[in-house]
Amino acid sequence: MTSRTAVRSLAASLAVPALLLAGCGSSEDEQRREAFCEEVPGLLSDISGDVESIYADPQSAPDVLEEAVDRLEAVEPPQDAERIWADLVASWQALTDLVGSADLTDPSANTGLAEEATELQGDLVSAGEAVDSYGQENC
């Protein structure tokens, strides 16, 4: 085997695995997008169901909301969704903090929180719509 043939054979043997890996692999951000698109709709649906259970047991609200925030914080969104995801998590955290400051044994004691709750509701809706729009455009 000539040195030229040996170099070609070596180059070819190195190129094939590289091509296979490039074709099969994807960047970390692409993997995050794929996971985000596959997992987030179900996660948000689960969290919505958990939050609905609060109506039957208002005393569970702090724990349910804290768990929701923990689950949302565990998501690693793709780079182009980081801001909207951070906004959603921040809105949920603010709601969790608000509920944590409420007197759940006496609803009439929480009338001063109504304005902040209304504002948070708008923030949650806006953040949720942004995540939904991202999903429709990118998933």
List the helices and strands and how they pair.
Blueprint: H1 3-24, H2 28-52, H3 61-73, H4 82-101, H5 114-138
Helix pairs in contact: 2-3, 3-4, 4-5
Distance between the termini: 51 Å
Strand content: under 5%
Percent in helix: over 70%
Structural class: mainly alpha
Which term fits the overall shape?
elongated
Number of strands: 0
Q: Which ranges are low-confidence, i.e. pLDDT below 50, for 5 or more consecutive residues?
A: 1-25
Instruction: Give the biggest beta sheet.
Output: none
The overall average pLDDT, rounded, is: 82
What Rg, in angstroms, do the CA atoms define?
24 Å
Helix run count: 5
Order of helices and strands: HHHHH
Structure description:
The chain is an all-alpha fold and 139 residues long. Helices cover 76% and strands 0% of the residues. The protein has five helices and no strands. It has helices at residues 3-24, 28-52, 61-73, 82-101, 114-138. Helix 2 (28-52) packs antiparallel against helix 3 (61-73) and helix 3 (61-73) runs antiparallel to helix 4 (82-101). The longest helix is centred in the N-terminal third of the chain and has 25 residues, at 28-52. The termini are far apart. The relative contact order is 0.11. Residues 1-25 have low confidence and may be disordered.
